[in-house]
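Many introductory courses stop at the sequence. We go one step further.
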Amino acid sequence: MTVPREQTGGAETFWRRCSTCKREIAFESAIWKCSVSTCNRKGSSFVFCSIDCWQSHVPTMRHREAWAEEERSPGREAWRAESRVRVPESTERETLAQETADAARAVGSAPSSVAEIPRDILIVTSKLKKYVKARSGLNTSDAVMSALSDRVRRLCDDAIERAREEGRKTLMDRDF
């Protein structure tokens, strides 16, 4: 969850707080979100109770081009259902790191700890964004790079296993 919900006697009294003025935002009410993708990531999902609150956010974040997108906050039941299904991002990363370490151990030389496995972005951001734009005209969120890097790591782990099974110390295209 990105923002803790306050509770009174076990029942939620509101959905979230405005990112600027911190007023309560009721369930099923009008909200405004920033059009800039970095403002809508899981960890920093900004929501605003009014256009004025959104406008005071823009100079703080130094957006060159942005607009407010009107939406509705979820209903109480929809929010509860979403909260039960959602897995915190940190848990997803820990699970992925553990799976990577397990795969490395299974194929031979594993790092001594999960912390030794590099978690860098493996994708050249500018080249991917340029490709997507040329191919489809779509913009690409910065969060895509992390998701793609995780997939590339899984592909590499599988390819490493195949290369070791064949007794090679060199990863080759046929391993993928």
